[in-house]
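Exercise 7. Predict the structure of SS18 N-terminal domain-containing protein from Chloebia gouldiae.
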Amino acid sequence: MSVAFVPERLRGAAEVNQDTLQRLLEENDQLIRCIVEYQNKGRATDCVQYQHILHRNLIYLATIADATPPRTQKPVD
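Solution. The predicted structure, encoded as tokens:
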């Protein structure tokens, strides 16, 4: 099950940290590899479930990015 999936009763209670984001990015990498492999084998219909999970993960990451205030960068000397 995707690390981005959170049951309705727990939504808003999960803390997002660097470890969680890294695991999610690694999961997305694996999902993309599976999708490509299935497509290369001509089994595009078999990769639909992975595409749905990848989509959900990407929406989750986009939501976090939208909710995160921008960080100001220090000028480079």
